[in-house]
Amino acid sequence: MVLDFIRQSIADRGYPPTLREIGARMGIRSTNGVNDHLRALERKGYLTREDMKSRALRPTAHSSGEAQNDSAMPSPLEDEDVIDVQVLGRVAAGLPLFAEEHIIDTVRVDRGLLKGGREVFGLRVQGDSMIDAGILSGDYIFVRKQLTASRGDIVVALIGDEATVKYYYPEKDYVRFQPANKSMAPILVRAVDFKPTMLLGVVVGVFRRL
């Protein structure tokens, strides 16, 4: 049913469905559940995901034939070689990090390109506060989840109601979150008000569509 829906979408619209569209069609509420189905189809050689994007689903030649023995079918990408990274459009206070309404995509990344294994999530950058560090508005950053960081690390921190991407500088009386943009002032959080849970993780990579 999933393959038929993907093929029909490509035939009708010229491109595959999103994870949410597949979930809605199949009655699966969680994008993780959709990914489980897609990974199973990939392992069986019925599906590939090109360009690391969920929008680049492509049925293989195997998918149009009769079911074959799993051991005889090639796997385009072995699960142990890649990581499925959930990309968030935003992070807001009071909601789980992976609140379903905030997940906008899933990106497949070679394990060797990221430090942090499966403890990595993606976040779409909004704004120009880190442009001098080569992080532009619209980029996807990859973040290793952790509650600690070293001085000078680029971190994602939950300050106030939403997440921000800044350099991390703990000082004696406050924590300074420094932008990489000379026109912007740092965010200062008093040491007595700072909690480790404010740190969502350390930035370990950037992905940009050209």
TrEMBL record:
What the entry lists under SUPFAM superfamilies is as follows: LexA/Signal peptidase (SSF51306), Winged helix' DNA-binding domain (SSF46785)
Question: What is the protein's given name?
Answer: LexA repressor
**Gene that this sequence comes from:** lexA
- State the Gene Ontology BP annotations: DNA repair; DNA replication; negative regulation of DNA-templated transcription; proteolysis; SOS response
| Family recorded in the similarity comment | Belongs to the peptidase S24 family.
Q: What does this protein do?
A: Represses a number of genes involved in the response to DNA damage (SOS response), including recA and lexA. In the presence of single-stranded DNA, RecA interacts with LexA causing an autocatalytic cleavage which disrupts the DNA-binding part of LexA, leading to derepression of the SOS regulon and eventually DNA repair.
Which Gene3D superfamilies is this protein grouped with? Umud Fragment, subunit A, Winged helix-like DNA-binding domain superfamily/Winged helix DNA-binding domain
Give the GO molecular function terms: DNA binding; serine-type endopeptidase activity
Q: Does the keyword Repressor apply?
A: yes
Source organism lineage?
A: Bacteria, Pseudomonadati, Myxococcota, Polyangia, Polyangiales
Query: EC no.?
Result: 3.4.21.88
InterPro entries, A to Z: LexA, LexA-like, LexA/Signal_pep-like_sf, LexA_DNA-bd_dom, LexA_repressor, Peptidase_S24_LexA, Peptidase_S24_S26A/B/C, WH-like_DNA-bd_sf
UniProt keywords, alphabetically: Autocatalytic cleavage, DNA damage, DNA repair, DNA replication, DNA-binding, Hydrolase, Protease, Repressor, SOS response, Transcription, Transcription regulation
- The biased composition feature labelled Polar residues covers 61-72
Q: What are the residue boundaries of the Peptidase S24/S26A/S26B/S26C domain, all occurrences included?
A: 87-203
- DNA-binding region residues: the ranges are 19-39
Which domain of life does the UniProt lineage start with?
Answer: Bacteria
- Source organism per entry reads Labilithrix luteola
